[in-house]
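[Q] Does anyone have a clean structure-token version of this?
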Amino acid sequence: MDPVRLIIDTDPGVDDAIAILMALASPDVQVMGLTTVGGNVSAARATRNALAILQAAGRSDIPVAKGASQPLRDRYSYSPQFHGPEGLSLSLPEPESVTVAEGAVQFLYDQLTRELGEAVLVALGPLTNVARLLWERPIALEQAKNIVVMGGAVNCPGNVTPAAEFNIHSDPVAAEIVLSSGLPITLVDLAACRQVWIAREQAMALDSKHPQGRLAVDMLQGWFRLEPSRERFEFYDPLALAIALEPAIATVVKVDLDVGLDENELWGATAESGGPGEITLPMTVDRARFFSLLERLLELEGLEIK
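[A] Here you go.
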């Protein structure tokens, strides 16, 4: 079988890092490149983190293109309280490699139009780069084999406001552009992500002799060490990556969504419009299958999910 060709748009982020390492560890995946965006951290820090993760994983050959440093409206709020001030739970060496000359939008266009119908775009941060690509080169995303987005809180509470999830809340204008485009998008929202989690005790017992697996374990355990009160880690971005690789991990429905753009408590909210739609929304996640994939890719030892 031909490998799954992935482009990952990311704002690393501990959970982004684990998702990237899953992709790198898979023998069935070709990571065509990373594009970066502000969100969990600044775009400059996200870019540095992406390069550092690839270097630490021995994959500095994979290109990184820097993307948006500001959302389409206002500014990114960042998330140091969750990821730490530098975005990662480990201090990785300064990367020796640099970004490619073209920015994220041009890089996405080049890759998607070169691999007609073959590339899967996995968006793990705010959708600013993806929305700009739709504006500037609308034909490019039509060439994607699939588009998987981590974001939204459709039928559940948000994690930034009662109604909004962080990625969509960071740039709801971009999210509205992307989610109303009519493109076939899978939106992995908080309701799905909260079904796959690991407790502190379980995480601290993990080990791996696989290079990327060891780095992922260190990231996960480091996240718990950042804050002693943390009791569980929810696999947001790793679930989106897993669904990109194995869509059958979750049962799904088709929905149409509205994104809240009023600057009030509904800013960045995602709600079903009530009409038929083209957005694929995961509902029930097969926990056993997700953790089996995680364990297999990262060669985890000591994984016991209750």
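[Q] Thanks! Anything notable?
[A] The mean pLDDT is 95.
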